[in-house]
Amino acid sequence: MKKRLDVLIEEMLDGQILLGEAIAEFEKIYIEKALKRNNFHISNTAQVLGVHRNTVAKRLASYNGSGPKGAGNRSQ
Does the predicted TM-score (pTM) go above 0.70? Predict the structure, then answer.
């Protein structure tokens, strides 16, 4: 995994992606993938991620401008 991350990080640095942007995008994708694996169940997803369910719900709301109901944005 480290080798794959090294390549990705090199590409991001070449593209002048700022650290804050990289972290935010990683977190968003990570949470969305975990949510899909857990059939869009926020509490189960939170448990897998090791965070409180309110944290997952708040992050999801910040991604799509809605509350937990917006968590089921399955079009992606």
Answer: yes
Q: SS3 for 8? A: helix
CATH code, domain with 6: 1.10.10
**Greater confidence, 71 or 6?**
6
Backbone angles phi, psi at 32, to 5 degrees: -65, -40
Structural domain of 21: 2-72
pLDDT at 41 over 80: yes
Q: Which residues contact 76 (CB under 8 A, 6 or more apart)?
A: 32
Of 55, 35, 58, give the one whose Cα is nearest residue 45: 35
Query: Are 57 and 67 contacting, i.e. CB atoms less than 8 angstroms apart?
Result: yes
Confidence at 66, pLDDT banded by 50, 70, 90 = low
